[in-house]
Amino acid sequence: MFVVDLVKNLPHELATFLLALIPITELRASIPVAIGLFKMSALSAFFWSVLGSIFITIILVYMLDFVTKFLRPRFKWADKFFDWLFERTRKRFEGKYLTYGEIALIIFVAIPLPVTGVWTGSLAAYLFGIERKKSVLLISIGAMIAGFIVTIISAGGVALFA
């Protein structure tokens, strides 16, 4: 994987943290890479991956409004991109939000499948007007649950926190 090649020579903790920041990898890839390739303990892989996820969540939740308001009026491509991205995210999240309320954000992020991580969760929180501090908390809880699930799967459920 190209992204792993970019970070594999860094200290393993930093590499794991950075992989968790990237939208195409997030912790769904950073934990298996940390355990399998870097030979980190499950606990360490979980910690650095969840820390990276929470870190990028804070940045996204607090910067998304500024970035969209800055780019949209200046660049036609940005306006089209955000229209597409917002509509796509709205369609994926709206039913869950209407049914479960803000708890849907935890559930949405906690499911370790593509397009359900902290990036999409942060975008959904923004689109549905969930207060920023609450968004960070809900998304972080979802990231911890997803991290736990991925860690169990990656470690094979054996000697998880050895």
TrEMBL record:
It comes from the Bacteria. The chain crosses the membrane at residues 14-38, 45-64, 103-129, 136-161. Keywords: Membrane, Transmembrane, Transmembrane helix. InterPro entries: Sm_multidrug_ex. PANTHER family: TRANSPORT PROTEIN-RELATED (PTHR36007:SF2). This is Ligand-binding protein SH3.
